[in-house]
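User: I'm new to structure prediction. If I give you an amino acid sequence, what do you actually give back? Let's try with this one:
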Amino acid sequence: MATSGTYSFNLDLGDAIEEAFERAGLELRSGYDYRTARRSINLLMLEWQNRGLNLWTVQEGTQALTGGDGSYTLSGDVLDIIEAFVRTNSGSTDSQFDQTLTRISISQYAHLSNKLTEGKPVQFFLEKDPSAVTINLWPVPDSQETYTLVYYFMQRVEDTGSPASNNMDVPLRFLPCLVAGLAYQLSVKYVESNQKAPLLKAEYEEQWNLAADADREKASLFVTPGGYRF
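Assistant: Good question. You get back a string of structure tokens that encode the predicted 3D arrangement of the chain. For your 230 residues, that looks like this:
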């Protein structure tokens, strides 16, 4: 039996939109249809990021720390910090050392008696402004050592862009979910497809559950039995 021998299937933006229109029982006829579909995809990507942690968006970032400065605004593609630690003697095979930072709430930070205390940072809290995320460290870094903040963060999914030849910034395994989600969004927008919305919504949720389950962490989890002391 002959097979293609290739593994390059993908959907560009134009193909994904056309497939979604067909599932919704619609035809892609005008430039407006294309623009409204791109807008729906961009909103869909934001919805996915609100649903939880998407592993393909996890990236590593670094920030050189300056003595006396405990607040750093991160790049605009940072949505949230997953893990953070302070590194000393960066690059040294003999003495590089990473110390994990504990994330605290703004309320916990507010209850710190002296927010200007300097030393090696051990805690952080995040300010999430509409345009950027700011990380605040405590104690404020001192000048005794050279500190580097290293963090793993959730990165925004890239926008669709205008060309129909663009590919979406998602893994291939998420393409069925993307098309299903867009088909549902289109069925809500177009009156002639409203009756298909419940069916397309159910299909979208099923595809999301399948994709999200495939995208979960596969590392082993060990649970140690314990008890209570009285």
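You can read the tokens as a compact description of the fold. Here is one thing that stands out. The radius of gyration is 23 Å.
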